[in-house]
Amino acid sequence: MMGVGDPGSGIGLRVAIALSCLTLVAPWLALAQFQMPDPKTMAGIPRPDATLTTGTVTVRVIRGQLSNNIPNHPVLLEVAGTPVTTINTDESGRAEFTRLAPGRTAKAVTVVDGERLESQQFPIPAQGGVRLMLVATDKQTAPPQEAPREPVPGLVVLGEQTRFVVEFQEDALQVFYLVDILNNARAPVKTEAPLMFDMPAGATGTTILEGSSPQAVAKGPRVTVMGPFAPGTTRVQMAYQLEPVGGDVTIRQKLPATLEQLTIVAQKVGDLHLSSPQAPKATDVQAEGGTFIMATGPALQAGTTLEVSLTGVPHHSRVPRIAVLVVAGSVLIVGLGVAVFGGPRVDGRRAEELGARREKLLSDLVRLERQRRAGSVNESRYGSRRRELVRQLERVYGELDAVQG
Question: Which CATH number does the domain 39-136 belong to among 2.30.30.40, 3.90.1300.10, 3.40.50.2000, 2.60.40.1120?
């Protein structure tokens, strides 16, 4: 055993001291070598946080680095089945959304200096909340971008987020196509011809919705999307209206490009039933405001005609509406005839009373039709009330004829 005064003991002591110093310094060396991760790698990824109040989503917006917050900037939160909510970020760059319904799918969106930032879609958790971060490019420190490439010939597809949606509004079907045109190449793609969506027979009021690419143009029943298509997603949202005939509607839509996945959503009203040979799986789902039918199917090739059949669509007979128009037209014709050709002397006071009575009965008839369309009056009450109004109208018109000679 070596003593303290042994020659080797000094070396051992120096080695022990050196090892002790290395043990103390090592964590600092490791910390010095550690680099903070790039915020872009965390951007848009939802992170559950049990410390947040249930139904809360916070979205932090930064430019480039964590220390570079973007205050007083609008952030949109899209929650399925509810209107889009917009809240500005605070001084720390955070926008906080509260009282959100658990289970609904949500997505955060903002635009910074023309750059669109989106989060992944995520469900609102049943317990706690979600934290998100959206990271804009810091153009002062970003590497120079490549010069725009010339468009190359190629193909685009309709992405799997494409949706065909049907809603029922005021005796008519509102049909929406929410289309994601996807270019998976690194350069802009120029297709052989523009993508053209020819709306089904009977479609009226075809239009392009707000938020769509300016490359889309609606003219009559056709929507044309011009190329070239930039890398990534080109979004186009279009809509039109269909009036059900006899309670049944069939929608046939030819696809101008390959559809990666078919998804059809229809608002379930009354006994409405949806079927499609291309979407064999259909289920009822609960969403804000009611029940919806969701049908899904596999990919469809370009040129395929999508066929969707809707049966049991609520509709009302046009006979009462036509009857009211005929009665009103007859009154107008009689009035014009008297004004132009003249007529025998009439009892002005009695004629005025009958005219007022006639106008009230016509108003009651129109109101009854509206109540029926809204479903606030049953068929038995509707039928008896309508017959009574028509009888009274006939009596009034008979007395008017007598008074006017």
Answer: 2.60.40.1120
Tokens of 350: 């009695």
For 353, the token pair is: 């009373």
Domains 39-136 and 152-311 are alike in CATH topology: yes
Which fold would CATH assign to domain 152-311?
Immunoglobulin-like (2.60.40)
Per residue in 337-392, pLDDT tens? 555 555 445 567 888 888 888 888 887 877 777 777 766 667 777 778 888 888 88
Contact 371, 320 (CB under 8 A): no
What does the domain layout of the chain look like in residue ranges? 39-136, 152-311, 319-403
**How many CB atoms within 10 Å of residue 27?**
9
Query: CA dihedral defined by 248, 252, 253, 258, rounded to 10 degrees?
Result: 120
Contacts of 56 (CB under 8 A, 6+ apart): 96, 97, 98, 100, 129, 130
Q: Is 392 helix (H, G, I), strand (E, B) or coil?
A: helix
* CA torsion, ordered 164, 167, 173, 177, to nearest 10 deg: -20
117-158: pLDDT as tens digits: 999 999 999 999 999 999 999 877 756 555 567 899 999 999
Tell the burial category of 303 from Cβ atoms under 10 Å away from its Cβ (0-12, 13-18, 19+). exposed
